[in-house]
Design brief:
about 400 residues; alpha+beta; seven-stranded mixed beta barrel; four-stranded antiparallel beta sheet; about 20% strand; globular; disordered N terminus
Length: about 400
């Protein structure tokens, strides 16, 4: 009996020290075109001058913009439209991946009501997807080659459950560049001035944008009304609660904090903070880049906001310290959020995305080598759901929801 146990144990030891390899048949990427490939996803073909592409792709830190033609094919391979556009490499750390994220700004606004490349009916109240001015083809950031849809899943958790935040709408697509298969990417609406103007159905020139300057933690002016932007920055520096209450949409601020805290976003608030004002209205915060959600459990952000030193946390500290109904509203909205969101809702979103991507993930594996197999990708999807469940448990325990 002891010998039998020893043999079994030795077998597990060998398996544990051996790299597990899975042999799977992967799709052909050498002899496919946007019109001919076998896929249930839409495809985008970008045509640019080869020298321009090389310059932009390899000098990705220089924010080079190039001109090109964007052809959009539906899942049956039919060409829906061809549009001239300006193209550039996007992202921060994610631009180091070989399948770099791409930004597309159309020369003429796209009539999405006609083409419906993103379903216009999914838009929240106050959002308009009838036109699209710019798109991001994103490599999933820190989730690149893992599930490859984590950011999409968390964004959908927000807008499919009526969380009133400006976020990105999108779906997975296949991308070709100059006739060659490039990558499986996530097509998203943009949060630049052009993208926001289309989403909010306003003139881009009326939008003022501020953004966190990582890693120093300062909220800086980016575009628009510089005087208004400076007023906001001065209100933070002077810890002026009255000015902040006049400048910020407080309910939006609270919704934004609570959702980021609920999902356990580790890449926030020191990073990925962007806010906007339309024609001098109160500033609202944008929800984006959620690919670091629930990566570490028991690290909820909300309690730590009282001690962090970045500008966003300073706003929270000032409003909490000079409480003018802020704390009561925060707690009321938190209870509503925890009643609305659930593990079942998140799992449903993940399962739907996984079902959509499982026949497609082989293209990414073949081209980019990550994940290393469809089997590994399936394990990653299961891990995504487990991480959410554990994070949800500690959230509810922390806030007395169990």
């Amino acid at each position: 009996m002891k010998l039998y146990v020893l043999i079994i144990g030795f077998g597990f030891l060998i398996l544990g020290c051996t790299k597990f390899e899975v042999k799977e048949e992967l799709p052909d990427i050498e002899n496919i075109t946007p019109a001919s490939m076998h896929s249930n996803l839409d495809r985008i073909h970008i045509s640019v001058a080869p020298n321009d592409w090389v310059s932009m792709y390899y000098h990705y830190t220089e924010n080079i913009e190039i001109e090109g033609l964007v052809e959009y094919h539906d899942a049956a391979g039919n060409l829906l439209f061809s549009k001239d556009a300006t193209i550039r490499i996007k992202g921060a750390s994610s631009r180091h991946h070989s399948n770099r994220s791409l930004g597309i700004k159309f020369h003429e606004v796209l009539d999405n009501q006609h083409f419906q490349i993103i379903d216009p009916n999914i838009a929240l109240n106050g959002h308009d997807l009838s036109t699209i001015a710019s798109l991001r083809l994103r490599n999933s950031g820190n989730d690149n080659g893992v599930t490859h849809f984590k950011d999409l899943a968390y964004s959908r958790l927000a807008y499919e459950n009526g969380i009133a935040l400006e976020t990105k709408y999108g779906k997975p697509v296949h991308v070709f560049v100059n006739g060659e298969y490039y990558s499986l990417l996530n097509m998203r609406t943009e949060d630049d001035r052009a993208g926001l103007a289309a989403l909010l159905n306003v003139d881009a020139e009326t939008i003022t944008l501020l953004k966190m300057d990582w890693p120093n933690g300062d909220i800086d002016f980016r575009e628009g009304d510089e005087v208004l932007g400076q007023q906001f920055i001065d209100a933070i520096n002077n810890e002026d609660e009255h000015a902040l209450e006049e400048l910020i949409d407080i309910e939006n601020f609270i919704d934004y904090i609570l959702f980021q805290d609920f999902i356990g976003n580790m890449d926030w608030p020191h990073n990925n903070v962007k806010l906007y004002s339309v024609d001098g209205s109160k500033f609202r915060f944008l929800l984006y880049d959620l690919d670091y959600a629930a990566d570490r459990n028991r690290t909820q952000r909300l309690p730590k906001l009282e001690y962090l030193e970045d500008d966003f946390s300073k706003i929270y500290q000032v409003l909490r310290r000079h409480d003018n109904g802020f704390i009561d509203l925060l707690e009321e909205k938190q209870n509503a959020l925890y009643t609305n969101l659930s593990i079942e809702k998140f799992n449903s979103i993940v399962d739907n995305l996984a079902e959509e991507l499982k026949p497609e993930i082989g293209y990414l594996i073949k081209k980019r080598g990550a994940p290393n197999s469809v089997f590994q990708w399936s394990l990653n999807v299961d891990q995504l759901k487990q991480d959410f469940q554990v994070n949800d448990f500690y959230n509810r325990k922390l806030y007395g929801q169990l």
